[in-house]
Amino acid sequence: MKYEILIIDEDKTFVEKLSHELEIFECNIEPCYTLKCAYDILDIMDKYDYIIVNLDLSDGCAEEFIETLSKEQTSKVIILTNDTDNQRRTFLFDNGVLDYFLKIVSVEKLANDIQCIFKTIKRNAFVNVLIVNNSSFMRNMLKKALRPKKFHIIEATNGKEGIELLDKENIHLVLLDHELPDMNGMEFLSKIKSDKRFFELPIIMLSDSTDQDMIAKVLKLGANDFLKKPFAIEHLFLKCDLHIKNYLNIQSIKDHEQDLSNSLEKAIQMQEYKAMFLANMSHEIRTPLNAILGFIDILLDEEDNEQKLKYLKIIQNSGDLLLSLVNDILDFSKIDSGKLDIHKEVLVLDELYDIIVSIYNSVASAKGIKFCSYIDENLPKYIYSDFIRIKQILSNLLSNAIKFTPKDGTITFNIKLIDNKIEFSVEDTGIGIAKENQAKIFDVYTQEKSSTAKDFGGTGLGLNICTKLAQLLGGEILLESQLGKGSRFYFQIPLENVVQEEIEKFQDSKQTIKNISKTFDNHILLVEDNLTNQAFMKVILKKYKLSFDIANDGFEAIELYKNNKYDLILMDENMPNLNGSEATKQIREYEKQHNLQYTPIVALTANAIKGDRERFLEVGMDDYLTKPINKSRLTEVLSRFLGK
Predict the structure, then answer these.
(1) What is the residue-averaged pLDDT of the chain?
(2) Which domain holds residue 34?
């Protein structure tokens, strides 16, 4: 909206400067240099939103000019003067002018102050002021005084009516008279300030009294200000503007906080939806992968033809790569939703070192890359950390090193003891990373340049996941690199020594695994809806010499359980009709009601996020196996529940 402004001042230079400044605020300016000219213009048409007039003009008295204006015109008047006479100020405000400014300030400051007046008036159109006063004379006087400020005025003749209006209307300020019938101002104040809805509502108390004890009680009860009658209208303006501005700012902050809270809640919800989507997609991909990789393992064990073995190995490697990508997506989903845990346990550093070296030495050699490795002799044999996650970080770093190192290059893998910390490092003589790109390659979905994914492959998730895993382990992945010369990635984790008792338990468990049986004379129930996975599990279970029945969903599983005796139930989780968790609950209830012998139930699931294990145990399962099924883990579980 463009404001139409009439400026009356005989100082043409001043008018030009002020007009220029106000035009910045999108105002149309009509200059007028005499009162006579102003009379003529206003007689023809009152089209102006505001009239800015100098109080001291040579061709007439501005006070007389103001008295000739209509009430609506007067309420638009802004006075400019160099005079500081209080009597003149009082006269002007009593006659309905909007505001009063001294010309001694800079034109820029003056224009800015006038613009603030415009904003305030625009805001006041939506501001409700409640006047609680039993005197019609005082209510009319307050309404007349507040007319230039363009407030929406609501009236109450007593305290009870005022409280009813507070419940109905959105009030921004209360002008409360101290002397009221039935319920005086103090009682009214006490009552509404005890209601948390009105705790921040500004209240100005009006009274004839100047008793300091009474004023102190009023302020202690929650009034924001006190105004003695009779009052100066300018003071009323200032107090109203101040308290309304503060109140609206508080409400704006609260609204902003609520918006932030709603946005946060929505973001958390979207995060949960995203995590659920990624977990479900991961599940859907892992389920068929279970059968694909499982049958490849079986075929590799049974095939003698070298050419076919070569093809099978290619398929297996591609399947493992796909599984690795799925695991990256799932890990990213877990990290992003805060559902990834570190499971610290006793581990043997030499074993970790040997596994990494045996895998990546052969991979590097196949590409013609020299692989060097070293483990510090001063490191303890046993430490306390997460074997799987350390291996995951190192596998990612070494895979990248091999990927980005050309033939005849060198890769060096070291584990060292530095300042009571274990440092793992991977160094290569590959393509290196430009200094400006070194920080961003740790960001999610980011690679050094757009052509990297095309030339070398990858999702851009690996390093981001490794960074988060290193942080969860108590360390940080660091990088040293020169473009064209190679890179060194390294991270340190705290050295957590293991007590002798834990070492002995670990050794006992390792011995138990060595003694695990490979065949079993038992009858089990396999609950699996996917026909391909059924076919794969049939082959596996027959290799263990197990007899078994198959249920296609939870309902079939319950019926078979009721009519047969099983030594173990392998229960798929995601099935149509009735899922594994619900089927387990009903089996446990039936078992309890009929006082039957306890039957172990192990989940077979592609779900592998934080909380799944606890959820399965809570419904009555004893353990769970993730898909694709690891044969050694399956053997361990079968041995635990079926072994003699």
Answers:
(1) 85
(2) 3-122
